[in-house]
Amino acid sequence: MDVYVVAGNPIAHSKSPAIHKRFSEQSNQKMHYGRLQPLLDEFASAAKSFFAAGGKGMNVTVPFKLDAQELADELTPRAKLAGAVNTLRMENGKIFGDNTDGAGLARDLLAQGIEIKGARILLLGAGGAARGVLGPLLEQSPKELIIANRSNTKAEELVQLFGELAIAHQVALQSVTLGYLEDAGKTASPFDLIINATAAGLSDKSPISDVAASHIFIPQSFAYDMVYGKVTMFMQQALHRGSRVSDGLGMLVEQAADAFLIWRGAHLNEVIDPRAVLAELR
Ligand code: ATR
Question: Where does shikimate bind (predicted)?
Answer without folding.
Answer: 14-16, 61, 86, 101, 228, 255
